[in-house]
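Example 3.2
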Amino acid sequence: MQRIGWILRSALFFLWLVVTVVPWATFVVLMSIFVRGTRLYWVCVGWLAASIWGARVICGVRYQVHGLENVPTAADGRAAVLLAPKHQSTWETFAFPVLMPHPLCYVFKRELLWIPFFGWAIGSLDMIHIDRSRRNEAWSRVAEQGRRYMAQGNWVIMFPEGTRIPRGQQGNYKTGASRLAITTGTPIVPIAVTSARCWPRKSFLLRPGLVEISIGKPIDSTGRQPEELMREVEAWIEAEMRRLDPDAYPASAP
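Structure, written as tokens:
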């Protein structure tokens, strides 16, 4: 019976997403004819906030943030950082723009632009969409646009593992984020997220529970090598994941 309840609530949540995204995205696309940049971004964040609200009210997915003081606030000016979060679920891609005080510039695969309404809306924003099949070209695009958007005061967000990773597992941490941080002289903020507790990878079934987001202190990129810098980011994230979600990472047998 419990699982049936989860299925019904999840179905209602996705119906909520569809019903709200169509008018919201249509409005954003029309608005983009006249308005671009930050103002358009915050209109889109309104839909993301409604989505996170829906996950909480309909499916019981709550969240708690630790370490928000480790990122610059509005009072700190337009200081740029590069966010490097653990990636377990779609949930955090919706949540970070709602939680962060500055506009975020996601680096994502261009196929997301093909999703009706949702993709059309994010295509109107200052984001970096790449063709993964052309790696050299993709990196050039990330470096060029990342530098430009950071100069405008945006924060770039890149998932170091590149894709969603199942709960309790560790992906291959790539150096794209550390390379961009070094190229732009920007500190990296590592972030641990336990979203797979409630919304597992490649699943349409949401379970009630608590998602914990832990934000680490910025790591200086000055004078660093990409591999060495990313290893430090990886070590912090994975240690924090094991602290936040010990049940997902059973201790190795002696």
